[in-house]
Structures are given as C-alpha cells and as structure tokens.
Amino acid sequence: MAAATPVPPPAHLRAVDPARARAGAARRRRTGAAETPLARKRRARRINAVLAEAYPYAVAELDFENPYQLLVATVLSAQTTDVRVNATTPRLFAACPTPRALAEADEAQVEQIVRPLGFYRAKTRAIRALAQRIVDDFDGEVPGRLEDLVTLPGVGRKTANVVLGNAFGVPGLTVDTHFGRLARRFGWTGEEDPVKVERDVAELFEPRDWTDLSQRLVYHGRRVCHARRPACGVCPVADLCPSYGEGPTGTAEAAALLKYEFAPGREALLEGYLAGRTRAQLRAEGWELAP
Questions:
Q1: 67-168 falls under which CATH superfamily?
Q2: Extents of the domains making up the chain
Q3: Which helix (H) or strand (E) holds 71?
Q4: Which stretches of sequence are listed as region Disordered (predicted)?
C-alpha cells in the first residue's frame, strides 16, 4: 500500500530554513538573559509582524454584538471551548438580551440554556451576579474601564482586557494559557503569573498593538505552537524563537500537527479567511470552524 502523500503547510506562511532556525535557537539559548532589552524588543516586534501576515483575519473567536454579550460569553468560556459557547449564546441572548433581563431571569431557565457548557450551576450564578451588579452599580451598561470591570463577580484582568480590547477599542493584553505559553517560549518573559507576564510583554510593544498581538498569539497557539507538540517545522517565526526544536522540525511531520484552518484538508476554509469572509459567513457556508 502506497504511503500517503505529505500535505505541505499553507502557502502564505513564511518559510524558514531549518538550519537558520537551529542556529538562531542555539544562539538565543546560549545568550539567554544576556539578550539586551533593545534586542528582545526588536525580535518581539518582528515576531508580531510575521504573525500579522500569518493571521490577517485574527479576531475574537467568541461571537458578540455588544460589550454585554462579549462579557457574558467570556465568563462562560471558562473550561470549555469557544465553539460550544458560540453554539449556546444565541439562545441565551435571545432570552436575556440585556443585563437586566439576565439578572431577572428564572435561574432554572438559564441553567438549562448553559448546561452544555459544563459547571452550569456555577456559571449561571456567575453571569446572573455580574448582570445584577451591572444593573445596580452601572445603570445597566457594561463599564468601559479596567478598574470597574474587575469589580464585577467572576471578572479578572484577562476577561476585562478581552472586553476592553474587542468591545471598547481600549488596548489590553489578554494573558490566557496560549498567550503565556508563547510569551515564555519566545523568551519575552520567564514568569508564570499572568499579571507579571502582562507586565513584561507590555514593555516590548506599543499599547496600540496589544489587542491585535493578543489575538495573534492565541491563534498561533491553537494552530501551530501547541502545548505538547508544537509544529516547529512549519512555524513562520522558527528562526526568531529560542524554543525551536521543542516539537517536530521536519516539514511533513510538523504540517500534520496543524489545526483549525491550517489543518490538512481545510485549504478552502483558509482561502475563505484570507479572502476576507467573516466567521459568520463561513459558518453559513457550512464550515465547522473548530479543529
């Protein structure tokens, strides 16, 4: 039986010579903390520029129409997938279109709607509590300041920055699992604490870049730079990354690890993204956007 023909990586990804990537990673591992702040900043910004070319369509992967919807969806996304949240929130927001409606909704009804997301009782209590606080303290409108958002039940800096950056246009770094992992692999920080990671990364970029950078790191973490086996052999920033080699470096083996629209067999979906079609349009065409 003939072996399957290897599928090449997406053509729009920057190709990196493996020898160059190996040499760069070895050099950066040797220098480590000796990399000057200026050199680290320049390398970080080069990585961001390359990722911008790889993911020109990167936006929040939670569907929303206003700050209230994004806030609730983000809280619900804990310990589940964005795909499941996006499948659940239309029914929730049809039943509870405003914070007041959610605060006054029947608890059992809300539990039934969010049940597919897991931990549905705790999540119901959380979103109804934050909705009540918005009604009581902010006249029913989601506040647009970090210091106000983090006073809401169940809302930390990560959730607040998601809402600020994507619903209000206020720059913020969203340090989730993917962001933190990539920031450490790129040598931008050695910290594990999200607040300290946010501090270190913020020093490398202009505030105007923070929100887009956050989206790109999440996209790259989900599609290429996986936690267990990063697809180093097809990574467009391989020659800029001191962690090159943590995953397979052969092109064919690495390409087989790609997910979402980069996965083998999903070339038409990627073409749709690159052509400027929205997530809603692609779903209407019958595409499943998850891996």
A1: Hypothetical protein; domain 2 (1.10.340.30)
A2: 18-59+174-283, 67-168
A3: helix 67-76
A4: 1-39
- Which helix (DSSP H) or strand (DSSP E) does residue 89 occupy? helix 82-95
Q: What is the DSSP letter of 251?
A: H
196 assigned to active site = no
Catalytic residue among 63, 82, 123, 158: 158
> Which position among 176, 196, 200, 209 bears the catalytic label?
176
96 is in an annotated binding site: no
- What's the token pair of residue 250? 């052969």
- pTM score, whole prediction: 0.92
176 is catalytic: yes
Average pLDDT over residues 17-24: 89
Which residue matches tokens 């920033």?
Answer: 237
* Largest interatomic CA distance in the chain: 68
User: Each residue of 176-197: pLDDT tens digit?
Assistant: 999 999 999 999 999 999 999 9
Instruction: Inform me whether the pLDDT recorded for 273 exceeds 80.
Output: yes
CATH architecture entry for 18-59+174-283:
Orthogonal Bundle (1.10)
